[in-house]
Structure prediction request, 325 residues.
Amino acid sequence: MEDVIKRLREGAKANPKRIVFPESDDERITEAVKYIKEKGIAQPLLLAQDNLDSEKQEEFAADFHKRKKTKGVSFQEARKLMQNPLYYACMMVRQGYADGFVAGAKSTTSSVIKAALNCLGVDKRVGIVSSCFIMVVPDCPYGERGVFVYADCGVVPYPTSEQLANIAISSARFAKDVLDIIPRVALLSFSTKGSAASKWVRKVKEAVEIAESKNSGFLFDGELQADSALVPQVARRKLATSEVAGKANILIFPSLDAGNICYKLTQRLARARAVGPILLGTPQPCSDLSRGCEVDDIIDCTAVTVIRAQKRAQEKTEDCAECAK
Prediction:
């Protein structure tokens, strides 16, 4: 388990990015930020209500109002929002004053997601904001030697087939970028390849077809029961051939109920390390902490956010180089 966490932290140290923390009134955040700064995991920017720059507040309010006025948001309302460190942090990321943000130690998930959506918007390549966890299960032979990505565990209650497909693709891309693994994506159900029939099973089957039609280059299979996805012996009995079944390292849940319950059961019963929630589908990287998080959770989420910011910077450089040809 420690090898994975160490790799994440060392990967962040290789090129630390500016990460903003809008919850300086939480002692877990301040303790984590102190460690992050000392170890060079990130360049932390700690916000408090009394250290928000008034000129930037006006700049951020003007930008926010320009984009939201057609939806009835007045300039005064935008200015008031920029007095909230959470919105101010999101706008710092949007305007390039920071490379990512980590929040949620005190704020609810809905508050963090609302701020991220209103300030950052949705990445057009993905089309949906969701969340994932990196799950590190000790002494586990399944997945990537006990490492998994679970999604969606925090945002979309009942995703459509199209949304499930996009969640699967964005989770696979995340796993490849951050964990440097070959993603093998299982879309889970209570049925394996027609062993049961219902509209819920059809939804998952359709999601697999949609994901495959998008030619993302990732491996998908479904609908699969959890044991068919994870256990090679079970997969061999239930499926003749599959590049995913019995070898899955990305688990996509059919509903938020299933995803949230399963990640917490895995965390508590298997004593797994749960890194996240990591928000997927925003143009810039951000993490939504659990309000029950510990200092190590904040440090690990920060490391992941830094690595994602590194990847984004690399992609922008490559895009600029391509355009210059």
Remarks:
- The chain has twelve helices and ten strands.
